[in-house]
Design brief:
four-stranded antiparallel sheet, 11 helices, Endonuclease I-creI, alpha+beta, 57% helix
Amino acid sequence: MSYASKVKDELSRQVPAARHCQIAEIAAIISMCGRISISADNRYGIKIHTENVAVARKYFTLLRKTFNIVTDVSIRQNSYLKKSRTYSVVIKEHEDALRVLMAAKLIGEDGEVGENLSVKKNLIVKQACCRRAFIRGAFLAAGSISNPEKSYHFEITCATEEKARQLQAIIGTFGLDARIVVRKKYHVVYMKEGSQIVDILNVMEAPVSLMELENVRILKEMRGQVNRQVNCETANINKTVSAAVKQLKDIEYIRDTIGLSKLPEGLEDMARLRLERREATLKELGEALDPPVGKSGVNHRLRKLSAIAEALREKDMEG
């Protein structure tokens, strides 16, 4: 089972206790993957289509608990894709459909179908608990989330810009910065920050999925820290080796041109010691001198030797 399927399965089993939250979640599911039909004699019907059995199960359960409505559920197998199934949950009775639509504020008192999910004006998303339920329903109906092992990406696909803006505003009430991108004919509300995806899972009340994501984030962060430390240490080693190679070349050049005995006593000792102990660190070189000197003292002498070698090279080039 994919991570997205695990999240939806967990959310499908989360049934709010309060009726107003149940209605908010029903409203989101109908809004995102439902279709309202009106017959010639003005009788209403509601149908939702989904490829996720968890969504169909949740919607069926909510309708039964909230409105005591028993719906028709049908399953269609795609003949081309044997594993692909489409689940349809249908409210055929006009009175039942009308009760659901009016409670979910998806139909006006004049009978006109529409949506006004303003956070300030609409009662079904006025309370924080109902907004949580609405986001949960929207994600179940039209959302997806990537495997955190690979990347961080959370999205809910909306059929219109208005729906996307409404959903963005509702998510924003929890301090989350969801963005909108147009993909083909759809408007997609999305988030790509790992910390924000953790927060939205908390908003939707998916603690098991949240902990799984947090564990992955911690492991990835630890791996990143180890890799950075290894890279830093490797860079330091390479830098140290390169410096040692240059020091040896400079000292050998001095030896082969004027001879080490021509150097001042402190520099001669340093040069001979470096030739003898080619792989020693600055600290080890300093401790081997008599009298011992610190790393800065060793570094100072090696820089002087390099300057002498450069001067000799320039002199040779001029000659």
